Amino acid sequence: MKAALISIISIITAISVFGQTKVSGKVTDVRGNPVSLANIILTGTYDGTSSDETGSFEFTTSEPGWKELQVRFMGFRNFVKQVELKGQPIFLSIELQEDFRSLEVVTISAGSFTAGDQSTRTIFRAVDIATTAGATADIAGALNTLPGTQKVGESGRLFVRGGDGSETRTFIDGQVVLDAYSPSAPNAPSRGRFLPFMFKGTSFSTGGYSAEYGQALSSALVLDSKDKGEITRTDFGILSVGADAGHTHVWERGSVAGKVQYTNLRPYFGLINQNIDWKIPPTSIEGHAAFRQQSGKHGLLKVYGNFNQSDLALYNYGIDDESRKERYDLSNQFQYLNGFYKNILNQNWMVRGGFSWTNLYNQVLTNTTQIATRENGFHGKTVFEGTLSERVELKTGVEIIGRAYVERTNDDQGGDFDEFITSAFAETDLYITNHIIARSGARFEYNALSNRLSLDPRLSLAWKPGSAGQISLAYGKFRQSPKNELLCINTALQSERADHFILNYQHIENNRTFRIEGYYKRYTNLVKFRNGDDHALNNSGYGFARGVELFWRDNKSVKNIDYWISYSYLDTRRNYLDFPLEATPIFASKHNASIVYKHFITYIKGQLGLTWSYTSGRPYHDPNAQAFNGGTSPACADLSFNWSYLPNPSLILYLSCTNLLGRKNLFGYEFSPTPNSQGIYSARAIGQPAKRFLFIGIFITLSKEKSVNQLPNF
Amino acid sequence: MKKSNVITLLSVLILFSISAVAYANDYLESMQKGIDAVYQASDIPQLQQAVNTLERIGAAENTKWEPQYYAAFGYLMMVNHEKDAATKDAYLDRAMTAIEKANALAPGESEIIALEGFVYMLRVTVDPGSRGPEFAPRALQTFGKASALNPGNPRALALMAQMQHGSAQFFGTSTADACALVERSLETFDAFKSQNPLAPRWGKRMAEALRQQCK
Predict the structure, then answer these.
(1) How far does B189 lie from chain A, in Å, by closest CA?
(2) Using CB atoms, which residue from B3, B5, B137 is nearest to A705?
(3) How far is CA B167 from the centre of its chain?
């Protein structure tokens, strides 16, 4: 009995009467500044406390023996230490290390405008594309209001820093798109094939981009498609140029969405006078389908497909002899399939990959000629991204790009090629300190067509001395295969090359952004006609572009008003194609400026948008004059307007109009190929197809959630 | 077996069960303190302290959803006291992490789903222009899901009413639906009963304030 009592007493003693241990200490960061409100945890128990304003803490525990002590605070790495609790007071000096990745301390920013809706530090948001006046919900149209772009009115494409439209490549979920624009009449602007509402984020880089993106000489437009749909809904749109219908079906772990769109400009052209003599105004039928499925905890599969059939016909008039008219027919078919997969491999690594397939057929018919082109392309890619250590992140991947191109004319001219490119890239982000990041990488390519190996280095540095300002530098070598119509003449042509040097300063504070960027771009290996013969091609062309760009955006100063101002200065010359000497190409304009204004007006339930843009005169070549590209066209300016009206949550009325003031913009001149009887080459101005473009749309959304509308679409 | 050994064994068993009961009470008691601290906190430091306490309990009790739920709730309350958009997002990220943990521990718990909807609703307030179109319907949908899981969850109804009222004001449409819903949520608040002593009690004052706006 006595023994039993002793054992009971000893057990009770062991459990409850063991001595209390006082644990105290001080939490600081690496610079010795106190960290207040850090959580001090004795792992596996409730014991612990929070640090006070001086970083000090103190608590007592009755736990015995060796225990793990953790200190946690937002923006810092967890601190872990084993402590022995035996009744004696413990004092701990704890220095927390900053967690580089959890705070957006410093980011690579030279050359790029990244837009995502999640982060509040982005300069340009995905929704901006839809709400920029003058863009009429066209991705390229909206991006043309950013610095680094030169507006080319008769093209509608993205011309970046002295590069032509083909030097900007579009990537969807990392996969290249071979032809990102819908067909258009000669000297009439084309629109992008992809609707802005499909994307949750866009990254528009005007130079110095990541080693992941190849086959792009001047610019990379990287579009990230939306993940799983959130709500089951049906959408209808009635437009002044056609109609569309879409449906999204959502289940627990996936979604499927489809949309069909029919466009016919005949009724519109019937009402509003056009400068083009249309035989068959543009018509197109287009379908999009998207499938999303989540797998496991983090896996996601995305499949997207798109088809488009476009037709148009018009009459071209002779420059010399206005009475000579010739019919021009264009027919274009496009099919695109894109698959994307991503998953997390373990705590430190993730994998993403995908494939894309493009099939493009284009046929142009006139009385005298017939040109048909077909391009078939495949792109496959796998990328691993992960963490090597606290300060080093690695991205590495492999890709293959295969293209088959055929061009045939009625007189059996033309050519073809099969190009196959294998490439690999690796890039590391090194956090030198909290405020300095260095990104260095390289891209290796083997082009089986030209039988060439290449290695292109890329380097970026960013330094953020304070909380708002940041200085960045970027350098890289870039290459892109020559245009299809040139490569099919001479398949031995090498890639065209460019070196980018960029210096950038950016200041973001309180929803106001200021940015200035200067750059120098050197072109080498450009395709050149030997002695002006367009069938004797080599890579002896060269050139340069340099400039300074400014950007200011403010959506803070006045409530409900958001505006940005951008300005680009460009100086560029090149000697390529048929140029007899180094000259400024006809698509390059020295000064470009835009002011974009958006005002949400609550009492009229809508958003008003205004965009003013200015493009200084561009060179043109007058065969009657001595100097090559010696003429300068007049400057262009445009004031566009849009208005979206939301009478109730499931209905949007949308109205937009370009060139409100009806200014007569001239983009350049074209000349008769042969001189007339007086020995003069006759000229004709290239102007706008119509003074204004007016667009009206009604968008209706049906869903169980009543407050859903197509705002993400517009 | 010797008598003394039997007694020793018995006493050990009794002590174990006593400590188990004490332990359970300790959990409830500590949680209650932590929850009260969150409810009573009036600024970010007080909220962070309360959240720290709840996170300590959560780290020790890795099968219980309540510590994660209230830690997330604490972070959501911090958003209301914060002005900087990026910091608001950081709090919302933290809340979302805790909600995901809670969701994994108690799948299908209506209260957790309602809190998830609350995160989406606050995401909208950070940048209504660009986030409204995506997160507003998502918030409504999530409140709907919470309500379907437990029609007696008054917070799901009150939050949905708040969201509907906000969008009705934004679009200038009738607030009648939102106001009817807030009445229903208040009835549900009065009828709310839970077996769980740690069940959420917040939200009624928010609903009452909304009813005032409806008058």
Answers:
(1) 24
(2) B137
(3) 23
Cα–Cα dist A401/A408, whole Å: 23
**Local confidence band at A114 (pLDDT 50, 70, 90 cut-offs):** low
**Is A711 within 8 Å of B141 when comparing Cβ atoms?**
no
A664 in contact with B, Cβ within 8 Å: no
Q: Would the CB atoms of B173 and A649 count as touching at under 8 Å?
A: yes
Indicate yes or no: CB of A120 within 8 angstroms of CB of B49. no
DSSP code at position A90: E
Could you report the predicted ipTM of this complex, rounded to two decimals?
0.83
Question: Would you state the structure tokens that stand for residue A307, as one six-digit string?
Answer: 């088809």
Tell me which residue of A277, A283, A245, A243 sits closest to A264, measured CA to CA: A283
Of A663, A683, A686, give the one whose Cα is nearest residue A672.
A683
Q: How many beta carbons lie within 10 A of that of residue A418, not counting itself?
A: 13
Say yes or no: A97 contacts chain B, CB-CB below 8 A.
no
Q: Please tell me the distance from the alpha carbon of residue A135 to that of residue A132, in angstroms, as a whole number.
A: 6
Q: Which of A1, A120, A562 sits opposite B4 (nearest CB)?
A: A1
Alpha-carbon gap, residue A714 to A697, rounded angstroms = 10
Band (A120; pLDDT cuts 50, 70, 90):
very low
Task: Output A179-184 pairs: Cβ under 8 A, ≥24 positions apart.
Answer: A179/A334, A179/A358, A179/A360, A179/A375, A180/A221, A181/A140, A181/A156, A181/A157, A182/A284, A182/A308, A182/A310, A182/A332, A183/A310, A183/A312, A183/A330, A183/A332, A183/A362, A184/A156, A184/A282
CA–CA separation, A504 and A495 (whole Å): 28
**pLDDT for A447:** 96
Cα(A390)–Cα(A567) distance, rounded to whole angstroms? Answer: 39
Q: What is the pLDDT of residues A56-80, one digit of tens each?
A: 999 999 888 899 999 999 888 889 9
Q: Which of A121, A649, A712 is the closest to B167 by Cβ?
A: A649
Structure tokens at A557: 């100063």
What is the model's pTM? 0.82
H or E element in which residue B91 lies: helix B85-105
Tokens of B201: 């009690």
Chain B contact for A15 (CB, 8 A cutoff): yes
How far is the CA of B64 from the CAs of A46, A89, B67, B107, in angstroms?
Answer: 14, 32, 7, 12
The total number of residues written for chain A in this structure: 714
**Other CB atoms closer than 10 Å to residue A465's CB: what's the count?**
11
Query: What residues of A are in contact with residue B97 (Cβ under 8 Å)?
Result: none
Instruction: Please answer whether residues A571 and A546 qualify as being in contact, where contact means their C-beta atoms are separated by less than 8 angstroms.
Output: yes
